[in-house]
Amino acid sequence: MSDRRYLYGGTAMAVALSLAAFQAQAADAAAAPPASGTASADAGSTISELIVTAEKREQRLQDVPVAITAFSAEQRSLLGIQSVQDLTNFTPGLHYSSIDNRPYLRGVGRNTDNLAVASAVATYYNGIYDGANANTILQHSDLFIDTIEVDRGPQNTLHGANSDGGTIDYISKKPTKDFYAEGRVGVENFGKVFGEAVVSGPINDWLRFRLGGNYTTESGGYSTNLATGQHVGGDVAQAGSGQSQYLEGQLDANLGDHIDAWAMVSSGQFYTNYLLPTAIQGNIPISYVANGGFTPNSFYGLCGIPTVAAGNAGCAGGQTVVGLQPRGTVTGANFPGLDPSNQNPRTYLQSGDSTNKLKSDIAVATNVTYHADNFDLTYLGGYQKFDYVLNFVGPADAGLSSYQLAGPTTTAGAGLCLFDASGAGQNPANCFSPLSINPGPSLTNFVEKDEFFSHEIDITSKGNGAFQWIGGLYWYHENYEQPVSAGVQPNQTQLANPFYLNFVTGALTPAPANPESAVSTSDTFLKYDSYAAFYQGTYKFNDEWKATGGIRYTDDEKSGHQIWRFEEFGITPGFEPSGFGANTPALDFTSVAVGATTTTKYDGAGLAVLNPATGFYSRQLKKTWGAWTGDFDLDWTPDHDTLVYGRYARGYKAGGFSTFTIAPNPETKSEFVDSFEIGAKKTFNRTIQANVAIFYEDYQNDQIPLSVQNAQGLIASQLFNLNDVHISGIELEGTWHPIDPLTINLQYSHLDATVENPGGCFEDVVDPLGAQPGANTSGCIAANNNGGVFTPATQNLKGNQLPEAPPNKISVDGLYTWEFDPGKLTLSATYIWKDSTYGSVFNRPYALAPSYGEADFRLTWNDIKNRYTVIAFVNNAFDTTAYDRQYGSLLNTITGLGQAETIGENIGLAPPRTYGIQFQYRFQ
């Protein structure tokens, strides 16, 4: 594999250098009008320049000693960049999982949806940090966003604590000095229709405004739920179809000769379906309890079908199924391996509907600058508040709404049920009645209620002196609640009314009600404050040499509390349907599941304490982290068109907490990185532009979430620190503009993100035997049955690749423009290839998304007066199966050596072939 990857790297590098690599700057192909129907040619064609703000002052992209990819609105329109997923196609080192809304730069990013841990890739809107998760899902078109800038590598000096992987900054289009209005409509396949409009102009000679909005609806879907016929999946938000709305208003003012002020208020929301993952492929075994489950498995209900019962050993000798009710016309029994996705990954079965909603979102951003003679004093302020609600059904589903299990047939068999009935307030006669199992739907309910604001004051030098500087103060405050409930079965009312079990007598007493009707119910209430001061100075020795150094101190504090409760239903020995019938209780075992946390204080956490009124255990969380970070670079500029630089940066990301359960060791340590980068940016004769960056990054205490299975069998995510991770690579970008109508763009990146020292051994809950290809138990504990108790293997991660880090990625785009008397027509043809990519740090075949290539085409017509534009496009023109991510799931429970692991492949698919047409009209 290594030789193959470096072969790709060498080949792509040769091509890149011959074409001057790739800098995604699709210049407007404009020249003297040719004869009608022919292309123009002009050997004097030049490449346009782009202005960026990576160092908090406006500079030519080619002058900034940082690996940057940036796109103007016009460039994105020609190339068809509408989303972060599209952005990855033209940005080396950038990877994105649209289903999870997780960006990665050079192998690091957001690996978890736990808000107690920040992403290593910081997202900014108009220079204001957006530390949340869900509100970044809704993407905005080039009608609203002017420039998108991706800065790779640690950016901590000027951009703060949580940018040790890099930053993505969205810059809005601002109010215009002259009246301007534009409206757009578009129609695409899968029932997608959108409309959007803006109006902008002067209110008086010192005040300007801009108003805009978008409405999008998509009624179709990329995948089909065979249980209902519902079509699911799209690109409205987070790979879902549905509706979205967005509104914004801006004011821009010149308050006298020295003060410029800008403010924006925006609001957006969406309501879509959701599918995570797109499909699970594998032969699903039948068992009464699924691996990691705490209620009877929906697939066990298929044992009520004689042909299924006869062919599946999991149906034998267990609870007796006496009836079943499919949700639709088919169940898993109609398909090989009980799984329709084995035949077509875009078909599946679900007994419930997954929904994804962002609501009550409002954001405010301000920028006020005072211009003094020798410096600018700038205030940046931001505020945002939103609610996000995601309810999703698990990928493995039999397609049953309910099924019935027989109760006991004798008084002796119902003895414990009859004993408990009076104390539990139950009807003894129900001990002999069948129990209805209602697995449809079985949901995870994930909620974010987030509110945050930030204040920043910058002082920036002006003038042409040899020494230039910028300094600032920063405060970020976030206050959030994050309720997460798993195994939510609203139709299984026993979970809403659980019991406590006396382990000595077997007696049941009512526990407090659980309105969530869930196996695991958690909530986290946390405040996050980040304070920082920074300074950066640049000294220009002469016209060729310049040095820049910066330093920042950051103090981070997170404090709050978490609550949790845990239940089982129908699976506890002695309390199963065969002995309790319709009186089978849900049992609250939270006191057992919290374990030692009631008596042991772990770093950053207090003791877990029971609230008898609610049934929840609660634990206080509080921790402070802090660090000095900084950077230094030396630049050589022998001429206006050449920059060679060397850069060192020290990055930092604050620690956090594991909060979805109450477990030992909730705190994760701070993450640090030392980054070394050399780069060059060169423009040849204004027609060829080549940028290259070679980097090595050493991460200490790399934060990574891993699934952990506790003594009760509950699988939950917990954060760990990997002692040492080494990341290296090369990134090439370039543009070639040989003749006026033609622009060729190319980008290539090679990435090696390797665990050098994991700092310990870890269990892979998908491979507890440590028996799958690639498993490494060297220096760790092998799976064993010592003492008659199964102990899973732990594994050594040394040498494994980080997840979501494509080793190689390349894209080539050609833009060709034909000039006609009425206007011009531009064709964009793009080919993207992405290498096979692991979705887990446990590098196994079932977690390896295959490589794929995709071709996109786009035609853009602009009239000669720039009044209207017509765009026609087809993406993934050859309907390639493209992968968003892939990881594995263990489908059976391993209780000892000698068993075979049955592993399913969870695959997330990128969109199939999509096509559409758009019309834009401008009033100006």
Q: Could you characterize the architecture of this molecule?
A:
Residues about 1-45 have low confidence and may be disordered. It is globular, with a radius of gyration of 29 Å. By secondary structure, it is mainly beta. It contains 8 helices and 50 strands. The strands form 10 sheets. The protein has a 25-stranded antiparallel beta sheet that branches.
Give the amount of beta strand, in percent: over 45%
Number-wise, the strands total 50
Which shape, going by the Cα principal axes? globular
First-residue to last-residue Cα separation: 56 Å
| Biggest sheet descriptor | 25 strands, antiparallel
Gyration radius, to the nearest Å?
Answer: 29 Å
* Number of discrete helical segments: 8
Query: Please, what is the average pLDDT?
Result: 91
Question: What percentage of residues falls in helices of 4 or more residues?
Answer: under 10%
- Classify the secondary structure makeup into a structural class: mainly beta
Low-confidence regions: 1-45
